Amino acid sequence: MNTMIEFKNVGYIYEKHEGEDTLAVDDVSFSVQEGEFIGIIGHNGSGKSTLSKMINAILFPTSGDVIVSGINTKDHDRIWEVRQNAGMVFQNPDNQLVATLVEEEVAFGPENLGVDPKEIRRRVDEALDNVEMGDYKNKKPHQLSGGQKQRIAIAGILAMKPKCIVLDEPTAMLDPSGRKEVMDTIKRLNKEENITILHITHYMDEVVDADRILVMDNGKIAMEGTPREILNQVEKLKSLRLDVPQITELAYNLKKENLLASSDVLTVHEMVDALCQ
Ligand SMILES: Nc1ncnc2c1ncn2[C@@H]1O[C@H](COP(=O)(O)OP(=O)(O)OP(=O)(O)O)[C@@H](O)[C@H]1O
């Protein structure tokens, strides 16, 4: 497997003109393999967004190196290659969509990359089909639901043929059905198109199926492991001001009351099994 992203002793400091500087990311090292689905969680201000913006070369490390698909983001001649390899989706869909029509929106990225118009048309159709929005090609983005707008934002990235997509709380402003649409889309892109996903979220249930979870605290990676290794550590997560999935919390409380043999429960199915034992 190829390494998609590598952080080598990365630090990021926001310099203030007055007052103190903020060390938002503090000596972070980790790597992500091609095709992985990584969940990134952490309380407000723990450094998740700053970390993610360094992958897309929006921010550059103040110390250490970020390597994306073999390219150091400090290599200014190759910034557009980095941005094309690692697309980014943000929290507010309204801030990301600029065009009057959905198809123009999706074409925007490849146009900027100088892709041939015929190929752009092919990519737009393919990307819209991929997020199940093919029928909305000629609609106006502002007439769509939040979940649909986020899927259009994802299609705009897909049209640039990325290897990786970084999503910074893409479901935070969506209702439950919008959240499901977006989660189903990114899981499918990961499984079927082998696109590496880094998904930042405050919703623990969105990282239960991840290959790996990184937990951030005070600019550092406080925990790293599979969902089972991480999400069962209820006390530790609470000390990091994080929730656990509701079903895991219920299992934890039942175990405390000696009503359940094990609190190793991440899904409803596992809860049913644990109750039947
Ligand atoms: N533009 C900025 N200028 C100065 N400080 C900043 C800036 N952006 C973020 N910070 C600070 O850097 C630290 C990390 O912020 P960051 O946004 O990366 O955290 P986060 O984990 O993404 O938070 P949230 O969950 O609230 O989005 C915080 O202390 C924050 O106040």
UniProtKB/TrEMBL annotation:
<dbReference type="GO" id="GO:0043190">
    <property type="term" value="C:ATP-binding cassette (ABC) transporter complex"/>
</dbReference>
<dbReference type="InterPro" id="IPR003593">
    <property type="entry name" value="AAA+_ATPase"/>
</dbReference>
<dbReference type="GO" id="GO:0005524">
    <property type="term" value="F:ATP binding"/>
</dbReference>
<dbReference type="InterPro" id="IPR003439">
    <property type="entry name" value="ABC_transporter-like_ATP-bd"/>
</dbReference>
<dbReference type="InterPro" id="IPR015856">
    <property type="entry name" value="ABC_transpr_CbiO/EcfA_su"/>
</dbReference>
<dbReference type="Pfam" id="PF00005">
    <property type="entry name" value="ABC_tran"/>
</dbReference>
<feature type="domain" description="ABC transporter">
    <location>
        <begin position="5"/>
        <end position="243"/>
    </location>
</feature>
<keyword id="KW-1003">Cell membrane</keyword>
<dbReference type="GO" id="GO:0016887">
    <property type="term" value="F:ATP hydrolysis activity"/>
</dbReference>
<dbReference type="InterPro" id="IPR027417">
    <property type="entry name" value="P-loop_NTPase"/>
</dbReference>
<dbReference type="InterPro" id="IPR050095">
    <property type="entry name" value="ECF_ABC_transporter_ATP-bd"/>
</dbReference>
<keyword id="KW-0547">Nucleotide-binding</keyword>
<keyword id="KW-1278">Translocase</keyword>
<keyword id="KW-0067">ATP-binding</keyword>
<keyword id="KW-0813">Transport</keyword>
<comment type="similarity">
    <text>Belongs to the ABC transporter superfamily.</text>
</comment>
<dbReference type="InterPro" id="IPR030947">
    <property type="entry name" value="EcfA_1"/>
</dbReference>
<protein>
    <submittedName>
        <fullName>Energy-coupling factor transporter ATPase</fullName>
    </submittedName>
</protein>
<dbReference type="InterPro" id="IPR017871">
    <property type="entry name" value="ABC_transporter-like_CS"/>
</dbReference>
<dbReference type="GO" id="GO:0042626">
    <property type="term" value="F:ATPase-coupled transmembrane transporter activity"/>
</dbReference>
<keyword id="KW-0472">Membrane</keyword>
